[in-house]
Write a structure and sequence with these properties.
By secondary structure, the chain is an alpha+beta fold. Helices cover 27% and strands 23% of the residues. The protein has 17 helices and 25 strands.
Length: 733
Amino acid sequence: MLIGQDLIRADGPAKVTGQARYVDDVRPDGCLYGFTVRSPWAHARIDGIELDPDFDWTDITVCTAADIPGENVVALMTDDQPVLADGVVRHVAEPVALVAGPDRDRALAASHHVRVAYTPLTPLMDPEVSAGNAHRIFRDDNVYSRITVEHGEAERVLAETDTVITGTYRVGLQEQLYIEPQGMMAIPRADGGVTLFGSMQCPYYIVKALKRVLGHDDLNVVQAVTGGGFGGKEEYPSIVAAHAAVLALKAGRPVKLIYRRDDDLRATTKRHPAIMHYRVAVDRATGKLQAAHVKLLFDGGAYNTLSPVVNSRAVLHALGPYACPHVKVEGLMVATNTPPNGAFRGFGAPQVMFAAERHMDRIARELGRSPLELRRLNLYQDGDVTPSGQRLVDVGATQVLELALKEAEAGLPASGVPDRAGGGGAAARVAPGRGVAIAWHGCGFTGNGEAALKGQADVAIEGDRVVIYTASTDIGQGTDTIFPAIVAEVLGISVDRVANADHDTATVPDSGPTVASRTAMVVGGVVKQAAEKLLAALQAEVGAEGAFDDLLAQRKSAAPLRVRAQYRDDLGLVWDPATYRGDAYPTYGWACVIVDVDVDLDTGEVLYRRLVSATDVGKALNPVLCTGQLEGGALQGLGYATCEEVVLDDQGGMRNNRLTNYIIPTALDAPEMVTALVEIPFSGGPFGAKGIGEIPHDVPAAAVAQAIEAACGAVLDRLPMTPERVLAALQES
């Protein structure tokens, strides 16, 4: 049995020995190096672009919008974002021109001598005044997405109930901070086409975008070994690929475009900031939720990117894992002249679940109830109905809560406060606190997205080994380890005989994007079907049944035997995207996080002691990889909670665009982690597996906020909860 075993990572040896080839490790002959010329203004008219006559341009290639052979558009959900600004810029750091030179220093120098004349215009920076503003950024109302989910009669019940509790919650931008910056290389081909090789999550996104930019489809996209993504390499690499391709085709030579870290932080997409208003009616005697009206406002930035999808998941998760008979959620995603925001692990759920959990704490505070008991009273159970009208089955909310509480009974590790350098030693005034938060997360695409996409996977016999062909990339989460285990399990062979083909769109089918906690659950299921189909094809070819190796020995042909499977909607999901009614997700994951902290009462610093989590994963295909995903996501959630803050200047540019001042948790900040796995199998996933990539990020921040309040009485409803904000809240309390 391979499923459920801790198989060694397929990519581990190459990475630890340095043999893995990231895009910047590849240096073809004659390669040029690219650099992007960006706008210093949030909103401005471009009056002209000139090259400094005193600079030597002999070995430099320069591209502007006029050099784009096809359409000047980044094809995604809407055609609003240009590859290169033409006539106007809508956000600081927007690409205006490109240069390429024989080395990075030369390209950087050239970029400083591209003279762009601007007339600054007044920007719109405030999302609260964006919708319908006379300053137009997107279409005629600056609204990227407006979604309402309604179940029951929320307004009537709110008007008739004596106890209505309101609260407003705010979260800021968050940077994905993958360890490897954005990078892409474009290589002109002998047939007149172009190959794109680089760091990415979704090769077919780039294919779609480049067809429009180049005006033809003579291209293929190959994923290099990728140093992390977290959503930041979902849609954004299409821009980098387009820039590299335009430069390479004009120069007639390979061009490598690797972002410097400061450029990456300033220019790329972030998690959407949000302002969230909650009104909830509660039965004071029982503590049960009666009705809720939630209004969500998200800032999408200057271009649409994937913002409507973020809004979609947010409105569906806005009340957290709590049953409420009457619900109305309104989600509004608007445009501003700030850099565009886009995909990030959780896709809108971490924002709203911070708010939902903090509102449960507010209700408990106002009713004089225990926050834990209030949650127990209201958690979803089998048969409950969600705001979209979906009836839930196999609900694991109570199970993960009780298991996490049991795991948290163990004694805490010693506090690190006395040993902190400059931390006051034994004189430090420290208050301990514990917080509990519970998450639910819809696995896979919303509604009927998978049925529309129809993701594909191939499995082939090639000699004495089996090869898997998918476009589902491994960005550190373990896809290239899990898929061979699935195939080997089906065929009854050792996993070392199964390999993954390169993720090259010239040879692999479109499996759909590596996003939305869908890779193992959805594409893994398609891979399993393909393996079963391959076994059946082999049986048909040799005219017999039996073990895979026995059948393989009977083959008369040495030609590869390759089969394809496609996603099947066997669950009978019903979804109406116009009304947001029906089965929003094929299944849900459930998680509970318990955080123990120390709060320094003099500095406001929050120090983590332990994080306990219990998560319903359906089936742990590889427990070590599964645990690693959950712990990594939880640590990222702790960064969201207390230290990760994007600071913008008056043009919307990121001021702290260095790793010295954009602060993330390191190993020294990480608490002891206890990670418990709950397995409630999902019939639609391979061997029962559910998606787990996003859920660990959803509620650590809320658990930390509750822990701070328990420790010292400080109430914080805004992220991040920096020491300065903790001290301010302490003074207020």
